[in-house]
Automatic annotation (TrEMBL):
It comes from candidate division WOR-1 bacterium DG_54_3. Residues 226-271 form the Elongation factor SelB fourth winged-helix domain. One of its GO terms (biological process) is selenocysteine incorporation. It holds the Pfam family WHD_2nd_SelB. This is Translation elongation factor SelB winged helix type 3 domain-containing protein.
Amino acid sequence: MVLDVSSRTYKRKDRWLVSDLERRLSLNLPDLILSDLKRKDLILRKNILRASNFSQSQIESSLVELEKDGKIFLTENLVTDREKWKEVLNGIIKEVEKTHQKSPFRIGLKSAELSGKLKADENLLAEAIKYLVRDGKIVQQEAYLRLSSHQPRLSQEQTSLSRKILEKFAAHPLSPPTKEEILDEDSNYEDVLMFLIQGGKLIELKDGILFRKEDFEKIKSKVVDFIKKNGQATVSQLREHLSTTRKYMVPILEKLDQLGVTEREGDKRILLNR
C-alpha cells in the first residue's frame, strides 16, 4: 500500500515519520490532511491530497471541521497547521518589537527582512502579515511593519541634530547636500537621516540625492508647469529653468518618472497624464 505519494526521501531515525505513516495507514481523511501539513508550512487549498481518492467536497468538508477544531488555519486559497500559524504570527510580532526596542527612531522592520529572520515560507509570511494588519496588531507603512502602538521618536540630542540637518537643506533648496556629504560631516547623522527619510520629511532620490519634501513638491510643480506650457522638455531645458545642475536634475526626473508624473521619450520628458 502506498502511504505517501510524494517523492521526498526520509531517514529511518525520523520518529515523527513513523507516527505519520501510522496515521496514513488508518486512511482517516482528517489525519491525512494533518500529515500533509506536517511536511510543509502551507499548502494550496486546491492541492490538498490532490493525488488521493477523496473527492474535493470530502476534502473541503474535512478542512472546515479541522478549522472548527482549532487544528488548522484556512484562508481562501491556503491551508496551514494551526500551531505553525501561531508560531509565525508570534514570530512576526516579536521581530517587530525587537526592532522598536533597538531603534525607536525607525518606523519599524522592513517586511523583506522577515524571511531571513523567520524560517517560514514567504507565502505564509505574506498571509500572516495581511492577517495581523487586518487584526490591527501591526501596521504596514510602505515597506515597513510596525506595531499599531508604535510612533517613531528621536532622543533630545537626535532632535537637535534633525533641526541642524533640515537647516542645511533649507539653505540650499535646489542644490542640497547629498546623503554621503551629510554623513561625511558627522556619522551621528545616520540614524537621524533614516528617521527623516522614513518619516517623509526628506525625499531620497538616486545617487543619494535628498530634498526636503516641501522643496521637492515645489520642484515637481515647476517641472509640470514647464512641460504643460511647452509640451515636452529636455534635461538641459529643465535644468536651466530651475537654475540647478544635471547632478540634481537627472535624479529628479527619474523620481518623477517613477511616481508616474513624467515619462521619458528619447531625450525628452512629457507629462504622463496630459
